[in-house]
Specification:
The protein has 157 residues and is an alpha/beta fold. The chain contains 5 helices and 4 strands; from the N terminus they run E-H-E-H-H-E-H-E-H. It has a 4-stranded parallel β-sheet, with helices on both faces. The structure holds 4-nitrophenyl phosphate.
Length: 157
């Protein structure tokens, strides 16, 4: 019996990078006909209940994806049983994720770009203080990671 992959993408604020990672993964999975669940969260509570940053909404829209209805939330201990994979957008997110992990969880916690052959150990740079071009770079990273994730899940099934 195979398990449906359930992936939580985690950044700091859950308004810039992780909503784009969630959107990219949903699209890559749908394109491939892969049954998977996805969500995103922040390690911080600054933007709980807020829609994504308008620059992320525009970036996703350029790729045909509507994310204006997403709402920010903070990662919680229950996520470690709900998700099979919890993927951090950068290195600073990782210890903050691990800090709230229950002792006996089975979720696989890793850096998102570790999933991309040749990009292991790389961070998805925070575009918050940047411009539209930085959000385009974020999209390139998360789209590559989404496709790599889908390939790896398909080969496991
Ligand atoms: P994100 O970007 O972690 O990709 O959602 C940020 C969003 C908000 C802040 C920093 C980064 N902030 O400081 O409010």
């Amino acid at each position: 019996m195979s398990i449906t992959p359930a992936v939580l993408f985690v950044c700091l604020g859950n308004i810039c990078r992780s909503p784009l990672a969630e959107a990219a993964f949903r699209k890559a999975a749908a394109d491939a006909g892969l049954d998977a669940e996805a969500d995103s969260a922040g390690t911080a509570a600054y933007h709980v209940g807020e829609p994504p940053d308008v620059r992320s909404i525009r970036t996703a829209a350029r790729h045909g994806i509507e994310i204006a209805h997403y709402r920010g939330r903070q990662i919680q201990a229950a996520d470690f049983t709900r998700f099979t994979h919890i993927l951090a957008l950068d290195h600073s997110n990782l210890p903050n994720i691990r800090r709230i992990a229950p002792g006996d969880h089975e979720a696989h916690v890793a850096l998102l770009m570790d999933m991309v052959p040749g990009r292991e150990g790389a961070a998805v740079a925070d575009p918050y203080y940047g411009g539209e071009e930085n959000f385009a770079d974020t999209w390139e990273d998360v789209w590559m990671a989404a496709q790599a994730l889908v390939r790896s899940f398909r080969s496991e099934l």
